[in-house]
């Protein structure tokens, strides 16, 4: 049995970022626990790259969070002398999907509305700027970029360790109990950690710890495909952008020599324990078809790598951040709904403040753990 001031279940990007910010602002004892190793193959945070963007349709709230988060990524880069965010345009390509065309156009309008740069490119301009693309029209988000995801995760975890956080790998918390008024986690071997404050950042496994009446979360299975172009330079930043087109997105060859292509979010529920971790041929065909339409020269590129990864979806796609309404020493950070990575430093900083009983520094009412997710 061990005792600590703060225990965090889950060393994905959210748990690791929180541990990092805590370690910078408090001398309290912090234990970060993971059922596997940091950057294990199953967690949602461990992949070569993730999209950073300001474009959020008409949802200015997330655009403003992204503006704040970008500054924190830059601070982390300066502090560690590592590049984690590679700047890139996000090209919002107009296709045939009305909903996504609307998202693109509204993103453009929101950026304009808050005085940020954004362009509306007609075919000729697009051909000149990004000749790889075939489309009538596209908008740009010039504040976007590619986050080197695994590198960022390992950076947060190792910086947290450097600042005194104790990392316990291969300990699977099987339940949370309250003993002598203290949240306590146990594993199946009877090991226990008693904490003054407990934070659950268990990603798609969070349902194992969520009490009744809190916002529900559904893990869903997503497939990621990496296509290896013959001329990598033509598909690397800054010559090739991050792109959104008709429910799919792509990430240039950054952190790897292949272009990542994926659907924005398949909604088939899955169980993180039994999820099928290899991809389906239909998904390969769907990605190639998308490429044939919008980036024809990439459509026959070799499939170099693939990965299955889980989203932790809430119904309203908003995150869950805050105290358990009944046990205020237990806190949650889950439900990042396939778009949390870009906000990791901001979320880590917010959760660190909440764990210490401080004001979060931003308005998090939208992320309330006992909100009604169908109300918005
Ligand atoms: C395919 C895919 C693409 C994405 N693309 C983007 C993108 O482009 N941009 C963006 O901003 N976001 C993106 N996201 C979302 C982002 O990656 C996630 O929101 C983020 O990684 C979630 O991090 P997390 O720390 O909450 O969860 P995880 O990374 O899953 O970490 C949870 C950790 O908890 C551990 N754990 C679970 N249960 C236990 C237990 N009982 N005991 C101990 N440890 C436990 C797990 O082993 C795991 O390491 C994407 C997500 C996916 C899946």
Task: Map the helices and strands.
Blueprint lengths: L1 E8 L3 H13 L4 E4 L15 E4 L7 H21 L4 E3 L2 E4 L4 H16 L6 E3 H7 L7 E5 L3 E4 H14 L3 E3 L6 E5 L2 E5 L5 E9 L17 E11 L13 E4 L2 E4 L7 E5 L17 H14 L7 E12 L6 E4 L6 E5 L9 H12 L21
Parallel strand pairs: 1-2, 1-12, 2-9, 5-14, 12-19
Antiparallel strand pairs: 3-8, 4-8, 5-7, 6-7, 10-11, 11-12, 13-16, 13-17, 14-15, 15-16, 18-19
The structure holds flavin-adenine dinucleotide.
The site of flavin-adenine dinucleotide has 36 residues, from α1, β3, β13 and β17.
Give an overview in words:
- The structure is a single chain.
- This protein is 26% helix and 27% strand.
- The protein is of the alpha+beta class and 376 residues long.
- It folds into two domains: 2-46 and 150-215 and 316-367, FAD/NAD(P)-binding domain (3-Layer(bba) Sandwich), CATH 3.50.50.60; 89-143 and 218-313, D-Amino Acid Oxidase, subunit A, domain 2 (D-Amino Acid Oxidase, Chain A, domain 2), CATH 3.30.9.
- Strands 1, 2, 9, 10, 11, 12, 18 and 19 form an eight-stranded mixed β-sheet that branches. It has an eight-stranded mixed β-sheet with strand order 6-7-5-14-15-16-13-17, with helices on both faces.
- α1 (13-25) packs parallel to α5 and α1 (13-25) packs across α7 (344-355).
- The radius of gyration is 21 Å and the shape is globular.
- The mean pLDDT is 97.
- Bound molecules: flavin-adenine dinucleotide (FAD).
- Flavin-adenine dinucleotide is lined by residues 9-15, 33-36, 40, 43-45, 50-51, 172-173, 201-205, 208, 222, 224, 309-311, 336, 338-342.
């Amino acid at each position: 049995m061990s005792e600590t001031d703060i225990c965090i279940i889950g060393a994905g990007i959210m748990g690791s970022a929180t541990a990092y910010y805590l370690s910078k602002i408090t001398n309290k004892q912090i234990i970060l626990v993971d059922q596997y190793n940091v950057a294990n193959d199953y967690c949602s945070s461990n992949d070569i790259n993730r999209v950073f963007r300001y474009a959020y349709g008409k949802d200015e709230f997330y655009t403003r969070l992204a503006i704040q988060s970008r500054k924190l990524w830059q601070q982390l880069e300066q502090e560690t002398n590592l590049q984690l965010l590679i700047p890139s345009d996000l090209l919002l390509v107009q296709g045939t999907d009305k909903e996504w065309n609307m998202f693109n156009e509204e993103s453009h309008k929101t950026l304009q509305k808050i005085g940020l740069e954004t362009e509306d490119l007609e075919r000729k301009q697009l051909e000149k700027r990004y000749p790889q693309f075939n489309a009538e029209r596209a908008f740009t988000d010039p504040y976007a970029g590619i986050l080197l995801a695994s590198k960022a995760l390992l950076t947060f975890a190792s910086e947290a360790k450097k600042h005194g956080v104790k990392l316990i790998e291969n300990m699977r918390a099987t339940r949370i109990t309250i003993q002598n008024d203290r949240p306590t986690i146990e594993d199946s071997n009877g090991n226990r950690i008693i904490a003054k404050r407990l934070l659950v950042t268990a990603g798609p496994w969070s349902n194992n710890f969520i009490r009744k009446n809190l916002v529900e979360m559904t893990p869903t299975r997503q497939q990621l495909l990496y296509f290896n172009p013959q001329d990598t330079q033509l598909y690397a930043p800054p010559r090739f952008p991050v792109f959104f087109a008709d429910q799919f997105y792509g990430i240039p060859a950054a952190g790897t020599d292949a272009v990542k292509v994926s659907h924005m979010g398949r909604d088939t529920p899955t169980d993180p324990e039994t999820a099928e971790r290899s991809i389906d041929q239909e998904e390969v065909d769907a990605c190639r078809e998308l490429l044939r339409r919008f980036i024809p020269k990439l459509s026959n590129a070799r499939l170099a790598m693939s990965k299955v990864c889980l989203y932790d979806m809430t119904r309203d796609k908003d995150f869950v951040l805050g105290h358990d309404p009944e046990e205020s020493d237990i806190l949650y950070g889950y439900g990042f709904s396939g778009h949390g990575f870009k906000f990791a430093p901001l979320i880590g900083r917010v959760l660190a403040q909440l764990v210490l009983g401080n004001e979060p520094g931003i308005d998090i009412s939208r992320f309330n753990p006992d909100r009604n997710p169908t109300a918005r």
